[in-house]
Specification:
Layout (H helix, E strand, L loop, with lengths): L2 H22 L2 H12 L3 H11 L5 H7 L15 H10 L3 H14 L2
Length: 108
Amino acid sequence: MTATAFRTMRAALLLLPLLAACTSLSPESRLAAGLEDAGLPKDMARCMAKRMASKLTIAQLQKLQSLGTLRKSPSEPLTIEELVHKLRAMGDPQIVAISAKATFSCSF
């Protein structure tokens, strides 16, 4: 093996953990984690994130990151009414509409 090929292979092997980390931090997984942090049950958060991530812009997804900081108590789950109230307070009707559809779909 040539020195150039060896360096290329070594660089690729060093980058593999970084690439794996990038895939685990997809918008969908971050949204699901944020919804969980906000107080939604894990299954509900994952279901909603799957439906919402591809329909929202990066800016809208960033707005949703603030939901976790608005949680009243770590032991109390977030109710749908509280979620809707918090989403409306963001002032983005598209976030509310997409979230409402996801909530409805994932409730059944």
